[in-house]
Each structure stands twice: as structure tokens, then as C-alpha cells.
What does this fold into?
Amino acid sequence: MTHVMQTEVAVGLPRGSTKVVEIPVGGVKVKVKTDATPASLKQIRDLVDSKCDEFAGKLERGMSPVQLLALVALNLAEDLLNERERMKIFKRQVLERSERLSDRVEAHLDRDS
It folds into this structure.
């Protein structure tokens, strides 16, 4: 898949400024207003394109690019929710371990006083 990114506003805007960019993904050109860097946009586009490629071979013929992008969006949303749940569990584990470690340190300090 050939990727061409065309910006309608000069790159190198001050942080917080937005620009409109046309990003070709999954056979569809999408214009977005963003303050993301070109490197970030490329990473995002590459992720979406890789998901499109992953699903494209498994799909029924006749599926439109928009339907493919909807399927990709649903899959990425599921990945995001799963990652959020993993982070929530990880944070809880870190907090529990930190509290146990703190309790052990306090017990040791109390013993030495």
C-alpha cells in the first residue's frame, strides 16, 4: 500500500496549534484537524493500515473500505479497553506491593526504635 501524506498547512507549527491533514488509511482519504506531529501521524496511520491489512484478507468480498475501517475501529477500541483493564490491574498490583513494602519498612523502623 502506498502512503502519501499531504498537509494543507505548513509543518512545524507551535505546540498546541492545529493543522488539517489528509491521511490515506484503508483505501479512504480522511481529513483530520490535529496537533500531532508528522511522526505521530505516521505511527497512527501505520497502525490502522496494519489492522486493515490484517482484516482485509479475512473479509468477504464486496466489503467497502468504510466498512473495513469500521471493523478496524471496533477492533482497536477493543484493544484499547483491554489495555486499560491491564493497566488498572497493574496499578492495583503496584499499589498493593508498595503498601506491603511500606508496612515492612515501618515495622522494621518501629522495631529499631
Observations:
- Residues 1-11 have pLDDT under 50 and may be disordered.
- The longest helix spans residues 65-112.
